[in-house]
Specification:
With 63 residues, the protein is an alpha+beta fold. The chain is 16% helix and 54% strand.
Length: 63
């Protein structure tokens, strides 16, 4: 059976049309040490311009 964990991250909102993410690499490495594999992300909140401002990182491992 597979176990999934979801971690919410907020993107740093910059001028219209851009946003950036910090800390994601360290988080992915941290979960890898726990036996999880990074599987992707899902945008969970969008700003007025339509750009993603919050995402969930998805991690998976065998149980």
């Amino acid at each position: 059976m597979k176990k999934y964990e979801f971690v919410s991250l907020k993107l740093k909102n910059s001028p219209p049309g851009s946003a950036f993410l910090e800390g994601h690499r360290e988080l992915i490495n941290e979960y890898a040490k726990k036996g999880f594999e990074y599987k992707g992300y899902v945008p969970t909140h969008q700003g007025a311009s339509g750009k993603a401002v919050e995402i969930d990182l998805i991690f998976e491992r065998e149980e």
